[in-house]
Write a structure and sequence with these properties.
about 55% helix, two-stranded antiparallel sheet, mainly alpha, 2 strands, about 400 residues
Length: about 400
């Protein structure tokens, strides 16, 4: 089957470098668990950069403009001091560390993330089988949920694994799906691991993650089918079979996705409210946003502070149209056509959840790994860094050209 993307094979390094990559993966994944401080993400990212070095590109000038502009934005909006800014705002300069770390994700690092996700899914399966939503009551309290769930709906029984909430758990599973599909490992191993990841999506029942994953594989299947006319009959049979299954189980599917209401749920209405509030604040100060400070709104029903549940909207409402556009252009300049499909589903995921643009997150690492293409700062040397450069085709992009005919002299 045609791959949506392929993670370049890393050149074999020494055991020390490999061990550091695994250690960095452990630390970064640990930062996503409910009992660990998120700040240790910086340690893992720094290990990646120290282990592989800094790879500068010409577009990094835009990143510098964004970071300096964001700090000035905080300075002028907080009364001439950076100290009054929130911790989230002060993390903006560390996005440079996340970008550099994202350019240094080795195959060993990525596969370790997949395996750690599988381990957390094992905890989630235990919770789901026992009727619990968490490992202990302290974790359930962090998520503001009851330890035991008797709901008939999968959403009500969504487990936390070892995360602070089921949404964060589902995000890591979605990331692991994108990573695993790009690996060239044994088919049986990949099928087993992918089946476990799908089981994780089931027990977390995050609708955004499920829909994004389904669309991801639908696009891949469509591209595989149109590549050869001989595949069209098989594709038609598989498509009709899938439609038949959906038709038979249509009502249960609707009940689960609408949480038993059969219509729009509170979750969708709340997201519309958050988005409208964010747009109103953005329109009040479109150029600079709220001063690169963290943005939240009070949920009128739950009484808790919520973000906009939209990555692009959060970027713009925090930093304004000027700096937001600079950062978006920085991302676009590093985009390569091999990663259009995974980037597309990540963008889809980010429309209804605050997925990337956290500055320091696993999703941001993968985003900057998929957009790591760009001209190096030293344009005269143009050294390859294990990836396909825009001015030169990579080995994965080369077409199958006919061999030149060698003619004997007459």
């Amino acid at each position: 089957m045609m791959r949506a993307f392929e993670i370049p094979q890393q050149t074999p390094g020494n055991w020390t470098r490999s061990a550091v990559d695994v250690l960095a993966a452990l630390i970064i994944y640990l930062s996503t668990l409910y009992f660990a401080p998120h700040a240790i993400f910086v340690v893992g990212a720094a290990l990646l950069v120290l282990n592989h070095g800094v790879k500068l590109q010409q577009r990094d000038l835009l990143l510098g403009v964004f970071i300096v502009g964001a700090l000035l934005n905080v300075f002028f909006h907080s009364g001439g001091t950076l100290l009054s800014g929130s911790i989230s705002s002060m993390g903006t300069p560390l996005i440079a560390l996340t970008v550099m770390a994202g350019r240094n994700l080795s195959k060993r690092f990525l596969f370790t993330i997949v395996l750690l996700t599988i381990v957390e899914i094992a905890f989630g399966l235990f919770e789901f089988s026992t009727g619990q939503i968490a490992i202990n009551s302290a974790q359930a309290a962090v998520a503001s949920r009851d330890m035991i769930s008797t709901s008939d709906l999968l959403y009500g029984r969504s487990v936390l694994g070892l995360s602070a909430n089921s949404s964060e758990f589902a995000e890591k599973i979605f990331i692991a799906v994108l990573i695993l599909y790009g690996f060239t490992v044994g088919k049986r191993l990949k099928l087993v691991l992918m089946a476990l990841l799908f089981a994780g999506l089931y027990i977390t029942f995050n609708r955004t993650a499920i829909i994004a994953t389904v669309l991801y594989f639908l696009v891949i299947f469509f591209m595989w089918a149109i590549k050869s006319p001989r595949r069209m009959p098989l594709a038609a049979v598989v498509g009709l079979a899938a439609l038949g299954v959906c038709a038979v189980y249509l009502q249960p599917i609707i009940d689960q996705f609408t949480r038993g209401t059969g219509s729009v749920t509170y979750s969708e209405l709340a997201r519309l409210y958050y988005g409208q509030a964010a747009l109103e604040d953005l329109m009040a100060s479109p150029l600079t946003g709220n001063g690169s400070l963290n943005w939240t709104v009070l949920d009128p029903f739950g009484g808790t502070l919520q973000h906009a549940h939209n990555s692009l909207l959060m970027l713009l409402v925090k930093h304004g149209l000027l700096l937001g556009t600079v950062f978006i252009v920085f991302i676009l300049l590093g985009t390569n056509r091999r990663y259009i499909i995974p980037l597309g589903v990540m963008l889809l995921f980010s429309i209804t959840q605050y997925f990337f643009f956290w500055n320091m997150s696993l999703a941001d690492l993968l985003l900057h790994h998929f957009t790591r293409f760009g001209r190096e700062a030293n344009a005269f040397k143009r050294r390859e860094t294990g990836m396909a450069m825009p001015w030169r085709r990579g080995r994965h992009d080369l077409p199958n050209l006919p061999r030149p005919t060698i003619r004997s002299p007459r």
